[in-house]
Amino acid sequence: MTLAAVAVDRWVEVCGVGDLTPGRGVCALVHGHQVAVFLVDGRVYALGNLDPFSGANVLSRGIVGDRGGRLKVASPVYKQSFDLATGCCLDDPGVAVPTYPARVRQGRVQVGRAPSPVGPVGPVAAGPPAS
């Protein structure tokens, strides 16, 4: 599923949290960039959809799981795994995909307009925002 995005300030609204199937990804277009969005264990993750090994935009179709306690998505092409929180390739530490800030506000999933500039962005709980 590819979702259209609606800009909200510096965040882009991509879908309702109820539109996401836990453990599966969707692709959203965020300012011209394909972003893979996942809901895993009640948290939302967003990372670039481009698999750097195959050159195909397929990470949203990857298999979600964990390796050594780290949540990851495995590319459906050559099977390299990427950490959902950091974007780092677990099979080749010199390779990473961009991560994007992600949050849920009033039941809507929002992704930051630009990839995180430095370091990992932690996941955000999909529940209601804290008061």
Structural account:
The structure is a single chain. The protein has no helices and 12 strands. It has a 5-stranded mixed sheet, with no helix packed on it. It has a 4-stranded antiparallel sheet with strand order 2-3-11-10, with no helix packed on it. Helix content is 0%, strand content 42%. The chain is mostly beta strands and 131 residues long. A hairpin with a 2-residue loop joins strand 2 (6-8) and strand 3. It has strands at residues 2-3, 6-8, 11-16, 25-30, 33-40, 43-48, 63-67, 70-74, 81-83, 102-105, 108-112, 124-125. Mean pLDDT is 87; it is low at 118-125 and 127-131. The chain has one domain (2-116): Rieske Iron-sulfur Protein (3-layer Sandwich). It is globular, with a radius of gyration of 13 Å.
Just give the CATH class: Mainly Beta
Q: How would you state the average pLDDT, rounded? A: 87
Strand arrangement in the largest pleated sheet:
1-4-5-6-12
Rounded to the nearest angstrom, the distance between the terminal CA atoms is: 32 Å
- CATH architecture verdict: 3-layer Sandwich
Low-confidence sequence ranges: 118-125, 127-131
List keywords for this structure.
131 residues; mainly beta; Rieske Iron-sulfur Protein; five-stranded mixed beta sheet; four-stranded antiparallel beta sheet; 12 strands
Briefly, what is this?
Helices cover 0% and strands 42% of the residues.
Please outline the helices and strands.
Elements: E1 2-3, E2 6-8, E3 11-16, E4 25-30, E5 33-40, E6 43-48, E7 63-67, E8 70-74, E9 81-83, E10 102-105, E11 108-112, E12 124-125
Parallel strand pairs: 1-4
Antiparallel strand pairs: 2-3, 3-11, 4-5, 5-6, 6-12, 7-8, 8-9, 10-11
